[in-house]
Request: fold
Amino acid sequence: MPRTPRFNTPPPPGYVWVDEASTLTGRSIEQLYKDRQEQKRTGRSNGPRSVSIGRKAAWRIKDIQAWLDGQTGPAPDADSLYTSRPAEPARAAA
Reply:
């Protein structure tokens, strides 16, 4: 199991380090770093955008909030879920 990074300095105002970003997004630290590598490689990412502050990765709180807002969609309609069930198979006559 990977170690959780320890930071001796607090992040700049409006930013969080990876451990706090993990808590806010509900994504693992490993997944945030994978998203960061994808962002560096392609310019796009499935997670919130990260920035480099010195040699450390940081996430803007506004970017995390915008990403979370984009993740929530409308709630499924309970009636349509109930009626979407396929019909029961016919039983064979005994």
